[in-house]
Amino acid sequence: MRLVSRQLVRRAAGICCSAGLLALGACKPVGPDYSRPTYTAPPAYKEAGASTVIAPPPNPQGGGWQPASPSDGMIRGKWWEIYNDPQLNQLEERIVTYNQGLKQAYETYLAAREQVAVTRADLYPTLSAGPGFTHTKASENKPLVTPTTTSNYNDITLIGQGSWEPDLWGRVRRNVEAAHANAQATAADMANVDLSLSAMMATGYFQLRGYDAQIKLLSATVSDLQSQLDLTQRRLTGGVATAADVAQAQTQLETVRAQLVDVGVARAQMEHLVGTIADYKLPSFSIPFSPLDLKLPNVPLGVPSQLLERRPDIAAAERRTQAANAQIGIAVSAFYPTITLGGDGGFESTHGGTWIQGPSALWSLGAQATELLFDAGRRHALTQQTRDQYDAQVAAYKSAIFLAFQDVEDQLSSLRVLENESVVEQRAVDAAQHSFDLSNQRYKGGVTSYLEVLTAEQTLLQNQRTAIDLTTRQFVSSVGLVRSLGGGWDTTQLPK
To answer: How many of the other CB atoms lie within 10 Å of CB of 46?
Structure first.
């Protein structure tokens, strides 16, 4: 008889589990299914006029084309290598290994990834088991007590319990969907931190090399001014120059020396920034003197529609939009009954010798369904709240796209304008150099005063420094363009 009962229990449990799994598979989760909010990208960028920007060919007339992959015609992987600077490459490589901000973002992503596993566990039954021992002394004067009733006894148990709430309405599946989307958003956040740090590193590094170019120019100018001061003093001794000429030469020399010190301070601060991003110990960290003399690399631009796949901040906003959509389904599931299946079984006896025996076996199976009948509109308000939050997240997603296109256009216009300005400024440098050479010759020939030489030299130095500053700004804008395009990242790197 006990054998028949156990077989029936096992058969009933199997039927219940099979029926539950079939029902779970057949029930579509409540709430709206997610579809990415639509956005139509422009066919081409407006400001792609700089010679260092490689734009894709125009669409065929009467037709259109789309690259087969988000990476077609774009920078891939370690984007900083396009600058061909080994020192920069070494500094950039340290970010992934040592930067604490990136490590924090990585650990945040790992926590979000584990949340997916935590949420998915709700799809399965929970099982527990354990022994128990109780010694009871009952009152002999309580109601319905007979003389043969034992009032002092042991209760030894070994009970296993199981419970399962079938996800008939998709609440758990929507939770898993939201957790998965949030984990992907956090991974995109991490990629965005990595991109920002890499761009900050490259920007700081090129600014430092620009300061080195300024230091080289100012040091050479100081040497020339010292020679001119010596010449002016000799001319004063020979009665050709005046004391005012010597004073002017001395003033110009000390002015440029002060400028040299000032640039040195800025260089030191930029070196500290680079060292901090790379997580070096600053007292022992230094970057060798290296004036900026690199060739500005070409940056492949790609088509505007690729921007939606290559910017990690856009990807993060889009993933959070899906998570917000899943929250609507979670709220809607509260309108449906909660069904719980449960059971327990094991052994119970008053003596250890008969504890785990057939007559000591026990079991029970049960199910419960609960429906909330009245909550004063709470569920309706919560559902509407999730819909509002979804609409807000859609707006945030589209706003991220608008800002991304503005960012790209800003960097493109900067490169275009700076390129034109550099051409004009180089002509100004050449003209100032010619003017200074003529004034110097006239002064040595005794035709003019030292004031003319001083004015020409100040003009030359100012234009030379402006030319160096423009070159530095071109490199900074080039880095900014790469960053605004997403660097070497695209959405295919999101965790599945």
So the answer is: 12
Compute the chain's Rg from CA coordinates: 38
> Among 1.20.1250.20, 3.30.200.20, 1.20.1600.10, 2.40.110.10, what is the CATH number of 31-98+168-336+376-493?
1.20.1600.10
Distance CA 38, CA 401 (A): 11
Task: Give the pair of three-digit tokens for residue 26.
Answer: 């057949």
Beta bridge partners of 107: none
Strands (E) located in 176-310: 299-300
Single-letter residue type at 96: V
Q: Which two tokens stand for residue 144?
A: 């319905």
Of 378, 397, 373, 243, whose CA–CA distance to 318 is shortest? 397
CB 157 within 8 A of CB 187: no
Where residue 66 falls among pLDDT bands split at 50, 70, 90?
low
Burial 3-23 (b: 16+ CB within 10 A, else e): eeeeeebeeebeebeeebeee
- State pLDDT tens for residues 12-39: 444 445 445 445 555 789 999 999 999 9
Residue with tokens 């052994």: 347
pTM score: 0.86
Q: CA-CA distance, 295 to 301, in Å (whole number)?
A: 18
CB of 88 closer than 8 Å to CB of 80: yes
Q: Are strands 299-300 and 53-54 parallel, antiparallel or unpaired?
A: parallel
Is the Cβ–Cβ distance between 186 and 108 less than 8 Å?
yes
Listed as own residue / partner, the contacts of 335-339 with beta carbons closer than 8 Å and 24 or more positions apart are: 335/379, 336/30, 336/168, 336/169, 336/371, 337/369, 337/370, 337/371, 338/165, 338/369, 338/370, 338/371, 339/165, 339/166, 339/168, 339/367, 339/368, 339/369
| Gap between the Cα atoms of 399 and 317, Å rounded | 9
d(CA 356, CA 402): 70
Q: Which amino acid is at 346?
A: G
